[in-house]
Amino acid sequence: AQSVTQPDIHITVSEGASLELxxxxxxxxxxxxxxxxxxxxxxxxxxxxxxxxxxxxQGIKGFEAEFKRSQSSFNLRKPSVHWSDAAxxxxxxxxxxxxxxxxxxxxxxxxxxx
Amino acid sequence: DAGxxxxxxxxxxxxxQEVTLRCKPISGHDYLFWYRQTMMRGLELLIYFNNNVPIxxxxxxxxRFSAKMPNASFSTLKIQPSEPRDSAVYFCASSFFSGFExxxxxxxxxxxxxx
Lengths: 114, 115
Prior knowledge:
The complex is a heterodimer of chains A (114) and B (115). Chain A has no helices and 12 strands. Chain A is mainly beta.
């Protein structure tokens, strides 16, 4: 069975500082990996995805993520955080054969200090 | 396209009442998913449909929960009778295989409170 672990429940970062959110997955085949962001009271917005090819993927809002098969990780990064990046971030693995049904990690809530 | 549309956005109901949540997927998408988000369990898949047919309902917590998709543009999730522990945010998502990638798009969610 597939699973996703996000070890950090909360992260506080200063505006302008770099951000890295950790994600580890367990999946029996080639994983399809995603990062979604959820602002308060909102739905989930796709930040970026990895299906194949280049293991460093670029997303929206200046985010990027790196797929490392050897470490079963798909960490999300942003070089310089803006106050508007305060939100909850979810890593997910998709089951391709099932319409890409998603298994989510527990989420990491990011707080941005001025 | 307006994206995945869910209604209502908020629902407050009394224990024992029937609750119906609605979802309109993105036109042309052939998969539809219902997820539930709670503090205790995070985001979990309840059920999903392919071409209007339920494929996997193993995530539906109890017989009190039922979901239907009468056509490609509409789905409902019903809880009867509702209980306080059903309080959660319920998300609908839809996806389509483009030939190379398959991405799930989410609605804004319905926040259900059962008192």
